[in-house]
Structure formats: structure tokens, C-alpha cells
Design brief:
The protein is of the alpha/beta class. A hairpin with a 6-residue loop joins strand 3 and strand 4. About 40% of the residues are buried.
Length: about 280
């Protein structure tokens, strides 16, 4: 039997608090709202389980994936409702080493974790203003791309800064993914300038649906995030979007055969050639 052609997805936009207990109390009602609205697959943002920019407070508070209360709470909701839930990322303590992982978690309708993906690309930058960012000082990057089978389509998993690296999305599409998850906690300046255009570019280049659930607004730790969660179709069209940074739910229906149609019309995945130089 062929998979269903239509998939209703729910993207959760949060303003995640600085503790795990508060984060679960914040996200769980929004997930349940999406499920009540008919979503069969729900995606939450990056840092779903905690947002705390002070690493001296954050790192000691992190749990392993099996112990994290937000992960456990969302696994319970998945099992109760028979829903696929993708935690855009949970910041978790690694089983080995002294660094954390920024980890996407795919939960099936029984509440089981069927796949995880650790963010590949770390945002390490020295700005002309003298400001610096070193994501790699706290987080160990992943080393492999991940594609996940679902009843509807293959999901290709990415997180936030990954969206600036087209080769990752191309590799996921070549591995059969037609739906790409891009959960994020994008900053406000870069969000205003780059958020929509990058997401639409990744959709067009790969002929894929792009699901980008976002953090939004000013968090209790002082961080500002862009919001504007969005679903992009494989032709680059905006299927649905939130035009604000407030917590909320975005529902969208994906016409899944549209990915094959887009790839047939512009076969960039097939037409690419190896080259030498420059």
C-alpha cells in the first residue's frame, strides 16, 4: 500500500524558559494544541528543553537524553496521542566527555526514540566589533547526517546554523529525504536578514519541503530570537508562516507528491557533475 499523499504537520513556536520544568509546562500545551488541530507530525524548535545563555548555569543543569524531563514528557504525549513528535533539539549531557550535545530527537507514536541527530555545524565566529561566539566550547558537534523513515516520507534532520550549508541538505535529499526539518533559535538581526531566504533556497535546491519551527521573542535569560516559524514547499513557495515572534502553533498540509514533481521539473540533484579546480 502506498503512503498517504497528504500530511498535516504542526510546528511549535516557543519562548522557552531557563529551567526544564518551566520549559515542559510551556511546550506541552502547544504540542497538544497542534495534535488537537489534526497534526500527525509535530516539530518543536531548537533548545526546546531549556534556554539559558549563562553556561555556568546551563551545563550543570543538563541531563542525559534518557533523563531529560522535557524529552520524557514529550515521549509520554506521543504515546498517549499516537503522534510522531520531533523535538527540534534538546540540549543534553553527553554520556561521555565534558561537553553537551545539541540533539534532535525523533519520537514515534509509541513514545520510542527512533532516531537522533547531533548538530553538525558549530557557530564559531569573531566579529569586527570584537564580539565572539564559540558554540564548540560547550557542544560537541555531530559527525553524521541522519535520514529517518516515517509512514509518509523520509525526514532529513538539520538544526539552525546547519541551514547555511547547502551540501548537508543536498546529501539528505540524495539519501531520499523529501521533508527537511530545520528547527532553530535564530538571532533577531540574522533572522530579519536571512531566515526566509535561506530556508526557501534550501527547499528549491533540493526539491524538498522545509519545516522550520523557531524560538521567538525575548527570553528570561535576555536572549532575543526571531520567531516567524515557516513551512516551505519544494518549489520554494511559502505554504504557511507565523508573522510574529509570539509562542504559537502553525499547522500546514503537505501535498507530498509535490516533491517528486519539483525534482522532475528541475532535476538539479541528478544533473550535478563532479569537477576539478579551481
Amino acid at each position: 500500500m502506498s503512503p498517504p499523499a497528504l500530511l498535516r504537520v504542526g510546528l511549535i513556536q516557543t519562548r522557552t524558559p531557563a529551567t526544564h520544568a518551566a520549559a515542559l509546562g510551556h511546550v506541552a500545551p502547544l504540542v497538544r494544541e497542534a495534535i488537537a488541530g489534526g497534526a500527525k507530525l509535530v516539530l518543536t524548535p531548537e533548545c526546546t528543553n531549556v534556554v539559558q545563555k549563562d553556561r555556568s548555569l546551563l551545563l550543570p543543569a543538563l541531563k542525559t537524553l534518557d533523563e531529560d524531563p522535557v524529552v520524557l514528557g514529550l515521549r509520554e504525549i506521543a504515546a498517549q496521542t499516537g503522534t510522531w513528535i520531533v523535538i527540534g533539539s534538546a540540549l543534553v549531557r553527553r554520556e561521555t566527555g565534558d561537553k553537551a550535545a545539541n540533539r534532535q530527537v525523533v519520537i514515534d507514536p509509541t513514545g520510542a526514540i527512533v532516531a537522533t541527530y547531533d548538530k553538525l555545524h558549530m557557530f564559531d565566529v569573531d566579529l569586527p566589533t570584537g564580539e565572539t561566539a564559540r558554540e564548540s566550547s560547550a557542544y560537541e558537534p555531530g559527525d553524521k547526517a541522519v535520514v529517518v523513515d516515517t509512514p509518509w516520507a523520509k525526514l532529513g534532520l538539520t538544526i539552525c546554523y546547519d541551514m547555511r550549508f547547502p551540501a548537508l541538505h543536498r546529501a539528505l535529499a540524495l539519501a531520499g529525504a523529501t521533508v527537511l526539518t530545520v528547527p532553530a533559535a535564530f538571532t533577531r538581526p540574522t533572522g530579519e536578514a536571512h531566515w526566509e531566504v535561506l530556508l526557501r533556497a534550501r527547499a528549491i535546491e533540493t526539491g524538498s519541503f522545509v519545516l522550520a519551527a523557531a524560538q521567538g521573542g525575548f527570553h528570561e535569560d535576555g536572549r532575543g530570537t526571531w520567531g516567524r516559524s515557516i513551512v516551505v514547499g519544494p518549489w520554494g513557495e511559502i505554504i504557511a508562516t507565523l508573522d510574529h515572534d509570539e509562542p504559537g502553533v502553525l499547522l500546514a498540509d503537505l501535498d507530498l507528491p509535490a516533491a517528486d514533481k519539483a525534482r522532475a521539473a528541475i532535476p538539479a540533484l541528478k544533473n550535478a557533475r563532479a569537477f576539478t579546480g579551481p
